[in-house]
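Technical note accompanying the year-one report. For the benefit of new consortium partners, we illustrate the data format agreed upon in the data management plan: each record pairs a sequence with a structure-token string. No post-processing was applied to the example shown here.
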Amino acid sequence: MTVTPFNDGWAYRRPLGPFVGFGGEQLAARSVRLPHDALRDAERRPDVPGKGAGAYYPHGAYTYLKRFPVPAAWEGCLVRLEVQGAFRRAQVFLNEEFAGNRADGYARFFVDLTPYLRYGEDNELRIEVRSGEDSRWYSGTGLHRPVLLHVDRPVHIVPDGVVVSTVRLEEDQAVIDVVTTVANAGLSSRTVTVSTTITGPDGTEVERGATPSTLAPGEQAVVRQRLYLQAPALWSTDSPALHTARVALGYDPADDVVVNFGVRTVTVDPRKGLRINGAPVLLRGACIHHDNGPLGAAAIGRAEERRIELLKHAGFNAIRGAHNPLSPAMLDACDRLGMLVMDEAFDMWTRFKSPYDYAADFSQWWAADLESMVFKDRNHPSVILYSIGNEIIEVGTPHGARWARRMAEHVRALDPTRLVTNGINAFLAVIDEVPALLEAAGGGLNEAMGGTDGAFAVVAASEAASERTAESSAALDVLGLNYAESRYQLDQQRFPHRVIVGSETFAPQIGTLWPMVQQNPNVIGDFTWTGWDYLGEVGIGATAYAEDPDAVAALEREYPYLTAWCGDLDITGWRRPASYYREIVFGLRTEPYVAVLRPEHSGHTITMQSPWAWSDSVSSWTWPGFEGEPVTVEVYADAEEVALLHDAEEVARGPVGERRPMLARFDTVYRPGELVAIAFKEGAEVGRASLSTAGDARLTARADREHLRNDDADLAFVAIELRDEAGRLVAAGDRTVTVAVTGAGVLAGMCSANPKTQERFDGSTWRTFDGRALAVVRPTGAGEIQVHVSSAGLDPVLLALSVAELASHRGSPSSRLTIHPKG
């Protein structure tokens, strides 16, 4: 088997007339390197049908084109296209002949091109994609994940045909199974020897095996090899040791299949919780959407890896792909960096949530799409949970339970080594009974979004929810509960054999939620909504003030809101105050953290602040124009009391935990200088943190990597900041910044974290937000890249990056797509 990246040499266009594909008037095609999101550069408008759910982007329909030579030597081989993600309802044509299709925009799929090839000449590949009102978030449109070309000999290892699993761990060894599926597409019987070589994390060989196998024409054979690794390094979040299996059929080494895997076991039970390699683990989880901010939906390898790096640095040890399967590039990053994964298949089953969503395709495609997810995931040690759905309304009905059981068993048949879950929202599961339940509890629908003390908690803990979700929950290994922590302790008695995970929770409530996870052994973790800000569902975490004439007091905010504004990290990757609060709650940070509510809203009336919203705060003590004005200061600390000092003079002191666990809040007056928060336990100081007023702003720019590779997976992220001479961030006084990229690269995207803006990701000029902006540079060839960053009245910054040519790609995609963070 040879696997070749197929991401260069594409062009895309948008039809002008009513016909998407062959025929009809077309706009001129534009060259592009995949992965790519064509919708990102469309015009956002307030009147689009999808409104704020899709970030005010319109419907999209695009054609992707590629011409490529087909050597005469390929005749007699099998040629397949691997599409890792095409949003959505993709149709694949080769030389104007229909070759294959896929409805789901996140499913990885293969198309057999062999019958339509023209040998010894150029061939034309065309892929049509379309989207619109088919998601509750920004989906993007296009070939948003990589495309690969597989060329196989008649007798070959099938795609996804090598599966490595840990059978058991012993004191001195690990027992693993390597299961290889070989196919014979030739016209005569063949006997081949399946040879497997295992290398350890340091690259040295640790085990090998060889098994002969005879295949008749048209036959597939499964070859099982049990191998024994002596004292292997185990994979865990703290030590993500990766082994490699190389499986050969005796051809050229380029035909070998190379699979990275981790030696580890995963178990759960309601008394001992989740254990990895026998050691207990609590999931400090982040729900994340699939978009990459200024890149739109494009799953470029380095962008996926960077998100995992930053999420792990912020204290998370697990992610949940919401609400669709994660990309192979992100799973590779999770394997390397030690991040656990709950990979999720569907946001709906048979009932629609959006006018044109996957519910129309579910009954035809569900089994194939589950196979796609499992086959993609089952060699990744990071993946420990498969989720078959998110907030599925049907789980409260008998026939919905039938669907749950059917899917859970299908997943187990494909991969019996991992756990099956489903993110159940009990409120939605019994939605028809909610008015009666709230009336009986003395509540009302206005409290429905009130979190643990509101209707969500009341309904989730009701006997109706217990009874109606019992059958579908019994089909699972782990019950995922969305906003239903009121069941944690209840289910220890009601369902003593049930294991629970908080699959989706309100981020601001982590101070209450995490102790519940720690105190209930049947609960294995918490996944906050969300770890990283995302496009669409605009403004669900924003604060609306009565004094703002443009603000709408609604969960979905007005145009030009762009992001949900509810992530611990914003779309640039910068940690917001809520992230540091969470880190303190997790017990991973001992220093206090200081944040200041924006003084321009001091005394204003909040008309809308959803349970996903953190305070409207910034970690800054630089507020020019507000000298002598009232200001509110928040201090996050694992302490009993906090003292607030300004220039060494105490200006406030108070208890921690009155408004929220591990949080103290003070009203004071803004004066330039140094603000210090000192935390106390039993009268003794346990930590302090400070903020100082910044001086005059200077323009700074720093790339996360200076040495790049000329491939489709690499990027450089350039952090643009306004800082004073001492390096302090100047969060006030935002200004316009322009980026120019010349040489062997292009500006792939630019943004700030501003959740409400009309600026474009393909623009080269943005206004900073809280003193920061981000530029993303993508290589286009080997050589040097110059990045010029400028802002009127400030000294410009020039960065020099280098791009190395990459050797030709041959072999397994898992080995080829490895990215090293430091270049």
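Partners are asked to follow this layout when depositing records. The CA atoms of residues 182 and 221 lie 5 Å apart.
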